[in-house]
Amino acid sequence: MSEITENVRRVLENVAEAAIRAGRSPEDITLVAATKMNTAERVQEAIAAGITDVGENRVQELVEKRVQGAYDGARLHFIGHLQKNKVKNIVGVCSLIQSVDSYELLKTVSDRAAAAGIVQDVLAEVNIGREAAKSGVMPEKLGELLACAAEFPGVRVKGLMCVPPICDSPVQARKYFDAMYKLFVDIKGEKYDNVYMCILSMGMSADYAEAIAAGADMVRVGSAIFGERHY
Length: 231
Ligand SMILES: *Cc1c(COP(=O)(O)O)cnc(C)c1O
Description:
Elements: H1 3-21, E1 30-34, H2 40-48, E2 53-56, H3 59-67, E3 75-78, E4 96-100, H4 103-116, E5 120-126, H5 142-147, E6 155-162, H6 170-190, E7 195-201, H7 208-214, E8 218-221, H8 223-226
Parallel strand pairs: 1-2, 1-8, 2-3, 3-4, 4-5, 5-6, 6-7
The chain binds pyridoxal-5'-phosphate.
């Protein structure tokens, strides 16, 4: 068995175990393989091994790998920082754009989707660690952003996503996951128009089990599947 195949099976098993420990069903958790810097061939290997969802970070890389058939057989997510002028390349191509973090981006995605006659599913990315250098809407501005979703029929906001600060241990990451879960539940209670809080995307290779324990239903895992990245 190839290393990628072995890794996919192990991560899927760990996800299922974490789900059960959290009193949830393994099918309720979606494993998204984060494929940045991996060739189309390696991505296809992961899909053959059981990966159903893949996430890409850079629009340029996504466009190039897509024509090579990298994502065939899986749902494609966009999980990286998104610039307005690149939106046209991914609307309708990705089943979920996870990194919408501003009014302008929400509007640009919606306009583009509406022009194409589709509705684009998105997540709102939250800067849960309030880091100056990171994308994501600040937690206290999230409500304001989500209230705008009602103006944009070209999008459907399906939930929240975050990339917490780099932590020394999964235990440290847990406080950010708990804070995200609380936001997720609070927003659900607010009942904003055109906002459906059904996906909470958080947890990466080092801490996906903790994220599931804290309430994630989507985890994004790269290096635990593909090995360490060499930049
Ligand atoms: C790379 C990446 C991941 C996966 O990171 P690993 O630590 O390799 O699992 C998840 N989410 C985003 C947004 C990423 O860019």
